[in-house]
Amino acid sequence: MTDTLRADGRTPGQLRPVTIERGWSKQAEGSALISFGDTKVLCTASFTNGVPRWMTGQGKGWVTAEYSMLPRATNSRSDREAVKGRVGGRTHEISRLIGRSLRAVVDFKALGENTIVLDCDVLQADGGTRTASITGAYVALADALAWGKERGFIGKKAQPLTDSVSAISVGIVAGEPMLDLAYVEDSRAGTDMNVVVTGGGKFIEVQGTAEGAPFDRDELNTLLDLALIGNAELANLQQAALAQDLAGE
Amino acid sequence: MTDTLRADGRTPGQLRPVTIERGWSKQAEGSALISFGDTKVLCTASFTNGVPRWMTGQGKGWVTAEYSMLPRATNSRSDREAVKGRVGGRTHEISRLIGRSLRAVVDFKALGENTIVLDCDVLQADGGTRTASITGAYVALADALAWGKERGFIGKKAQPLTDSVSAISVGIVAGEPMLDLAYVEDSRAGTDMNVVVTGGGKFIEVQGTAEGAPFDRDELNTLLDLALIGNAELANLQQAALAQDLAGE
Amino acid sequence: MTDTLRADGRTPGQLRPVTIERGWSKQAEGSALISFGDTKVLCTASFTNGVPRWMTGQGKGWVTAEYSMLPRATNSRSDREAVKGRVGGRTHEISRLIGRSLRAVVDFKALGENTIVLDCDVLQADGGTRTASITGAYVALADALAWGKERGFIGKKAQPLTDSVSAISVGIVAGEPMLDLAYVEDSRAGTDMNVVVTGGGKFIEVQGTAEGAPFDRDELNTLLDLALIGNAELANLQQAALAQDLAGE
Amino acid sequence: MTDTLRADGRTPGQLRPVTIERGWSKQAEGSALISFGDTKVLCTASFTNGVPRWMTGQGKGWVTAEYSMLPRATNSRSDREAVKGRVGGRTHEISRLIGRSLRAVVDFKALGENTIVLDCDVLQADGGTRTASITGAYVALADALAWGKERGFIGKKAQPLTDSVSAISVGIVAGEPMLDLAYVEDSRAGTDMNVVVTGGGKFIEVQGTAEGAPFDRDELNTLLDLALIGNAELANLQQAALAQDLAGE
Amino acid sequence: MTDTLRADGRTPGQLRPVTIERGWSKQAEGSALISFGDTKVLCTASFTNGVPRWMTGQGKGWVTAEYSMLPRATNSRSDREAVKGRVGGRTHEISRLIGRSLRAVVDFKALGENTIVLDCDVLQADGGTRTASITGAYVALADALAWGKERGFIGKKAQPLTDSVSAISVGIVAGEPMLDLAYVEDSRAGTDMNVVVTGGGKFIEVQGTAEGAPFDRDELNTLLDLALIGNAELANLQQAALAQDLAGE
Amino acid sequence: MTDTLRADGRTPGQLRPVTIERGWSKQAEGSALISFGDTKVLCTASFTNGVPRWMTGQGKGWVTAEYSMLPRATNSRSDREAVKGRVGGRTHEISRLIGRSLRAVVDFKALGENTIVLDCDVLQADGGTRTASITGAYVALADALAWGKERGFIGKKAQPLTDSVSAISVGIVAGEPMLDLAYVEDSRAGTDMNVVVTGGGKFIEVQGTAEGAPFDRDELNTLLDLALIGNAELANLQQAALAQDLAGE
């Protein structure tokens, strides 16, 4: 790998600057404004005591997620899905991915009959909005769980989180495997992969797509290697953010 | 008026702290993140050269606006309008108000055949989201017009803005007329009025509603007096924000 | 003011001929076909014993309203909102205005756990459809309340109406303040205001909009004066209509 | 047949009182407020010079129809289809029936490239709304065609109407064949049939449905006989209405 | 009638080859893949113990139907109704016809509080999809009822079916009355009629439409004669199909 | 691996019986009814000369796909998406996957300005509906391309297919890696992966999801090995199906 390949000067295996503003929202039980470079996502976690009717009485909770983009998050304005009257396929797909990813680190018995809705709203988009969403939603989720514990909705000794979770994109751009693609890189990528990993380094979701030419086993392996490195870094950043005191608590 | 009536220590005629972060978005031609206390609205202005087909060839431009709230902007989570598949009446009403208010200070001949879409997305709500939206949208609009002028889409000597515009809420809470109601005040207000005013102090829109008892002419007059004072202050803040250099330009 | 300014020969402060056909519908508990000149609105009030589930057990009733226009009420045909699959912003806004206006004169405790839905369907439109709707809906509401009392759904001594309510439009056309604008006047109006007033002469709603140039305090005051005069006349007409015996009762 | 069977005193083969208020609407090119007893339908015909794009250049016109009921046309209020966001099956079915029925008496070549939209809005319903709609829509259509001829959109010698068209319901109630069912009869009918017939006595549409027991050939024949008698009477009433001078022309 | 008029060599009074693959679906309680020539419809009957809430406690069941076409069932592809977000008028109309037709041969008391949903999905269309749907749905319904009886949801001695039901189209093509129109014939038919008949030869539904010229009483009678012959044949085919052992039972 | 683990007697690495009925539809330019055991999907390819407006003039074609399930394809009936008025997230996600997968083996320059829509309608579902869809859609696509070549819409020497494509699911059930999961296995799988592979053995899409516990690199590798074996077999079956003469051509 050459070191100077990327528009923003990053090395192929380097993340963009990642910042996590925990507790950004005064209204939500947990929240984080996360940035992966110019990609900014506001993640909120809404804690409700109780579960949907079809789950009542099983002693288990539920976690779900919704993803959306502001109309001018991107370079040219998109119509609002509310105005179009329907949620688009891409939005649905990403909402489902975020939900599955976060549920994979939650012990629903330990959560008890509580529901958490994660909202990931992209305020500004520059590639990697789904991976930033998952990574930020974990921080919001952790805070909402702490909130629920403090108020007694979750048992004192319950450990609803089995691990942390983060996600990063990797891809092959101009023949070069790269970590954390910005939009300009993503749109040129021949292969594009989103990898969701636990803090312990196991896979929760691997989604690789050949945008141009099909990819082979070696390329797949190289990309997975990169993704594990990037996610390890993100796990540290999440841990650091959660170690700080929350302002105003 | 007593000075110590309000929960946050304000006098009845005092605005909440107002901040305007101009150029918040790297993607939009104009943008402002505006706060009225804990109410935070991201306003973007999207500039498009050209107008909708039905307006072509008239030498005139168009300005339109859309307002929305993030699902967890408020104290309890609301369902997304995109998920419900329809835009609600309140959203429609406020979108239309913002559009009318901004159009009132635009000379469409001077704008030429260009279209500007204003998006006001409430990131956090604590009362006054529509008035903050109008006030912030003006700043975003001004910057988008400057952008269009620099690129030659608007004539060099054209003055598409005829004045500035801002808006503030006033209301009678527990018998006391007050400026810039926070949510807790708004929900207790007997009469609630939103007043949109030009920088020159003329009315663009007056919307007064008796939530409890009907109001009389004197109360109406007192509220209008308060609103004119508040809007004059907002006009100064807008002017100050627009006088600064935009970072990164 | 000159006396001969208006297309239909009215003086600036003169209402169009107003007729109220009470009990037009054999099906509804209360109804009125109201005309303001060529504007004709069929107002029905549907009385239901009981309230929506979220209100049960509070001993209070509810009043709500829906407004709509027949597709060919206007000079050129509009698509039906049912066919488009969504209620438009203007329709939503007016429905909400009618609901708020009528609720302002109802004592929900006295109404008891009963629900009244007001439907205002514009059969023919020539300006002032929302003001005719409010004025006619009051008559339909009064009859539906009488119906509910006769059948014992409302207590014998209960007074669910605290006052009457009517509405009229005023505006500045070619520099001249005018009452009850017909469509041709409305579309030329620089300022347009809808004023909802109780029988007692207090304000329920004031909605003034600068369609052209912003308006000043003096103009606002002149318009409010005109509106109060017009509404006083409407209150008399409502009273007269309600004083008659209902055919077929 | 006994003479005194029916609630309103009609004989089995007798129509309800039918009235046709031609030119009810000042806005539409043709209109009729038609009553079959307490069933009242406002029919408007909107004339547009030109045809939908997919028909352009063929020298032929088009006629289409939309049917709807006001929410409180019936004994208990129905939700608006616009509010539900979709047109119901029954509405669709009747709109299509009206359109087919009217198109059957139009010569599209003689109409030329003009479009007519028929709107049938039921203001009050007491059975037979679809048959009253067809019968009234014919009058509105005839007037709209005359309007188009006067203004030169239709050739001077063109005869776009090949015949008149009317419709009536027939049914077997308590074993007795009856003409023009009121709602209370319709809901008890074992067999229910709507028959659309030209002025010349030929069938355009026959829709017979066994609501209770299946029906045999004899019953079918008796019902068709009744329907032809009723439609002949309606054809006379249409002719009489169209023979009068239109007020205000 | 000449014998050699039709494209596929049929005589005017001859059905296309009809096949009924009973038990096609492993998932549904009753099913049939029915062919009328190249028209192929998959009919499934879904049996649910219980009825919708509004029917509970009356000791009666319910039968309903939904019809749909695959997007490429026809010669040119249609947009999916799910993608368009609304069910079209034709689909609604046919779904309602199928439901009414099948309900006409069901004794709801004998069915008990059970619900059967009939789904008729057109896999390939060549005219007569609604008549094939009704004819096939009857077979699926009979099997679902047998299924319910075996499992004790329907009383042992109950006879929920009062008769069989089938349907066929008839029409006048180039002046010649014909049975079971294929698409190419249907699109040229001057009059088109769908006739739903019980096994006992009585009418459930007669829907005749003049597509071109209106039709007279004689033509109507000839068409009804043809339809009764065709339906008698279909009733035999249904009986034969139901007489066979179901594979895998 | 033990050989007798699976309900249907398969070994862990064994596909279910796969059948491909090519040319099932008389209407579509290409079609295949494909079965993976009890999963049956009707795949049609609709060929249109021309491309959407936004692609015109670039000399390139387009391929898109839509997936849907009949309401009673599954063990319990689902509501139709057309009736619900919106396409669900899962449907969207799978439609997009099928489209991407097929596009990956198409050379759009060689296709020329032609559009192919692939419809995959699940008639019966027993796990693996998306993989059967992709595998069958390839056969339909190949036939539609041949159709387009014969008619001269595609150049004589053009090779629009760069490879074949198939897909298979793999998963870890009760600790055992398995190929081609039936529904009962899929619902018990801890990890579930869909792998789309070219005939040449390269990856087009890898979608692995931890339904229960996260998975590690070794498990991922074992699953990929299995998937490559299964897809090689499917590629042979596709080739064999395409080698046969199409009936009726």
From TrEMBL, chains A, B, C, D, E, F:
A Pfam entry, by short name: RNase_PH_C
Keywords: Nucleotidyltransferase, RNA-binding, rRNA processing, Transferase, tRNA processing, tRNA-binding
Record-listed phosphate binding positions: 90, 128-130
Domain Exoribonuclease phosphorolytic: 14-144, 164-228
Catalytically driven reaction(s): tRNA(n+1) + phosphate = tRNA(n) + a ribonucleoside 5'-diphosphate
The keyword tRNA-binding is assigned to this record: yes
Entry's EC annotation: 2.7.7.56
PROSITE patterns membership: RIBONUCLEASE_PH (PS01277)
Presence of the UniProt keyword Translocase in the record: no
Function: Phosphorolytic 3'-5' exoribonuclease that plays an important role in tRNA 3'-end maturation. Removes nucleotide residues following the 3'-CCA terminus of tRNAs; can also add nucleotides to the ends of RNA molecules by using nucleoside diphosphates as substrates, but this may not be physiologically important. Probably plays a role in initiation of 16S rRNA degradation (leading to ribosome degradation) during starvation.
Annotated family: Belongs to the RNase PH family.
Binding partners and assembly: Homohexameric ring arranged as a trimer of dimers.
Protein name: Ribonuclease PH
Taxon lineage: Bacteria, Bacillati, Actinomycetota, Actinomycetes, Micrococcales
Gene this chain is encoded by: rph
